[in-house]
Amino acid sequence: MANATSRITLLDNGDFSLHAQLSPVPSPVGGHALTITSKRLESRNPHEEHVRFFACLDRTGLENLQNLIQTELAR
Question: CB–CB of 28/58 below 8 Å?
Fold first, then answer.
């Protein structure tokens, strides 16, 4: 399923939640858009998500991010 969008919850404390999403993009070829969003239930618009970070990454960028996370988890 190479063209599927993947989404995970990074943090959810009941009021505030942080999510990460990877979506395929046409450029760079084989790349993905990494989007980090947040939502706060006590806000004026509790169901509205706010984009905190967005980047289009190629395979090398995704692998570098994976290596960074794996390095930190190995500590």
Answer: yes
